[in-house]
Amino acid sequence: MKRDESAPRPKTGISLLVIRQFEGRLHVLLGQRRGSHGEGEWGTPGGHQEFGETFEESGLSELEEECGDEINVTRPRFLCVTNLREYLDQGKHYTDIGMVSHWVSGDPKLMEPEKCLGWTWHPIDNLPTPLFAPVENLVIAYHTGQPYFG
Fold it and tell me: How far is residue 103's CA from residue 70's CA, in Å, rounded to a whole number?
């Protein structure tokens, strides 16, 4: 079968699950999205992989762009990949690379108010809803090691 070379192709997105332990529980950093697909949904720091960046570099640069340079985390490691098709009706199809880092120090700041309503920590076992589509997969992968979500 010949492919249509003019058809849109999926983009590569990076999601960074930032884990922090306090009050005896694991928490994740989430922000409520605005101005893009998944508006109003709770998502992790993340965005498009830029040309020439590694997945780790993408995750860290997105974290700094969205949360400022005062939050420090461990080097991101691969968590999972998601064939993200939940937003096809909005013309969005992504290969989402899920990465995970652990919080070391500092507080997130709202750097892009046009894209996010604010950053807050949520218990990993009691996340707000609605969740941005890849977040549930990130949490499942964190707990189980499942590497792929189709």
Answer: 11
Closest listed residue to residue 57, CA positions, set 43, 75, 45: 75
**Strands 77-84, 148-149: pairing kind:** parallel
b/e map 23-62, b = 16+ CB within 10 Å: eeebbbbbbbbeeebbeebbbbbbbebeeebebbebbbbb
Indicate the SS3 state at residue 90: helix
Q: What kind of architecture, by CATH, is found in domain 11-149?
A: Alpha-Beta Complex (3.90)
For 109, the token pair is 């700041």
Q: Which tens digits make up the pLDDT trace of 123-149?
A: 999 999 999 999 999 999 999 999 999
- Distance, in Å, from the CA atom of 58 to the CA atom of 97, rounded to the nearest integer, reads 10
pLDDT digits (tens, 9 = 90+) for 91-107: 999 999 999 999 999 99
Using one digit for the tens of pLDDT, what is the confidence trace for 10-39? 999 999 999 999 999 999 999 999 999 999
